[in-house]
Amino acid sequence: MKKKFAVSFLTIVFLFSSLSWALAIPTQQRPDDGEVAPPAHGQTEKNQVKTGGLGLETSAESAVLMDAASGKILYDKNMNKSLPPASVTKIMTLLMALEAIDQGKVKLTDKVETSENAWKMGGSQIYLEPGEQMSMKDMLLAIAVGSANDASVAVAEHIGGSHEEFVAMMNDKVKKLGLKNTRFVNANGLTAEGHVTSAYDMAVILKEAMKYPLFLELTSIKHHELRGGEFKLDNRNKLLWWYRGTLTGKTGWTNDAKYCLASAVERDGLRLITVVLGVPEIRGHYKESMRVYNWGFAKYRGVTFANAGDKVRILPVGKGLVDKVEVIAGDRAAVTVLKGEDKKVAHRIELPEMVQAPVKKGQKIGEMILTIEGKEVGRVALVAKHPVEKASVFTQIYRTFEEVFNFGK
Which residues lie closer than 8 Å to 46 by C-beta, 6 or more apart? Predict the structure, then answer.
């Protein structure tokens, strides 16, 4: 009787284990960025992540964690390895477009016409037709939110005159940024021989793009409608839903590139950039990015002295149409330190007592120096918020007489 009971019990355990194992197998595994339930908080998959010397390893072929304020590298794995980035490429496409807008070469209201070359792009698209026109802003939204390959080429042709010329501009920008492991062949990230970047290089490109408020605005939109609501876009970057503090990001996937994601997150004054390339697991680019961020936010703290555009001081202006100018931080002034070391951080401001007109908007007037234990770790330019024109000789003479008159009173 006991033997029969033991056999029956083992049989039940075996059947239950087999059923549980079968139910654990995903019913569908497809290489896309579709919206799915997020992984459980703090979840660690077996054989995917082990604890290393820094307390963190990742299944990404290449990864980097960067302090967005200083560009300091907090963690890396093969960060300089050249790999195909897939649609993460579009961060550079957006950066080039926003630079062209900032320089007055194009406008958000421009009508961008679709060429046959743009129309024939495959993959993610908004199904532009040859000759179809759409505003530059809507095209950029299609790229930032919908990862549209056809819109990427249409924008490239509008700005560069041709797709090839725009790509040459992208590679010129790569050189200006001092990046050594990146070469672009197209503006959308479709598989092409020699089209590569590295986790570090892409982090630098994302840091540069984040200087434009419009970039953060476009890439943080979760849903958008085109063509009067007929075409709906859902952002491919699911960190916007799943991870608190997500500011921006761009996903990518091809057979060659596997799963890729470049993103930025800010919590409690600490802004971090993470890039993961070559993640083999479906939707693993989200899991690995969150794992890297969790590690970073657990170890580091951000100390912010000023955000870009914050008023620092008001200075008198000599020989100007107005007698004072507001000085603002030209960039975010922040320092990242290990938790518990924030009291070692300080800053000092170097500004003249007075500036002489003319003063241009954005003109550098001084600097904010950031230090840790007295050692300089960074500088942020302090710039003029508005222009001040030089007063005419007649106005200056009149003011001199006025001062004398008022003094006499």
Answer: none
DSSP secondary structure string for all residues of 95-146: HHHHHHHHTTSS-TTPEEEPPHHHHT--SS---PPTT-EEEHHHHHHHHHTT
Tens-digit pLDDT profile for residues 83-119: 999 999 999 999 999 999 999 999 999 999 999 999 9
Instruction: Let me know if 359 is exposed, middle or buried by CB neighbors in 10 A (0-12, 13-18, 19+).
Output: buried
Identify the CA nearest to 235 among candidates 35, 21, 83: 35
Of 202, 245, 252, give the one whose Cα is nearest residue 220: 245
Fold of 62-299: Beta-lactamase (3.40.710)
**3 state DSSP class of 202:** helix
Q: What ranges do the domains of the chain cover?
A: 62-299, 307-394
Torsion of CA 99, 91, 143, 330, to 10 degrees: -40
Residue in the block written with tokens 């790569």: 174
- Distance of alpha carbon 126 from its chain centroid, rounded? 23
Nearest to 44 by CA among 59, 29, 23, 66: 59
> pLDDT by residue (tens digit) across 187-244?
999 999 999 999 999 999 999 999 999 999 999 999 999 988 889 999 999 999 999 9
Distances in Å between the Cα of 55 and the Cα atoms of 76, 78, 296 are 12, 16, 11
Domain 307-394, classified CATH 3.30.360.10, yes or no:
no
Give the pTM.
0.81
Task: Residue 208: name the closest of 186, 188, 230, 182 by CA.
Answer: 182
- Rounded (to 5) percent helix, strand, coil in the chain: 35, 30, 40
Return the SS3 of 280.
coil
Cα–Cα distance list, 304 to 207, 281, 380 (Å): 17, 36, 12
- Asked if 151 and 128 touch (Cβ cutoff 8 Å), the reply is yes
Active site residues: 87, 90, 147
For 23, half-sphere exposure in the C-beta direction (CA atoms, 13 angstrom radius) is 6
CA–CA dist 285, 288 (Å, integer): 5
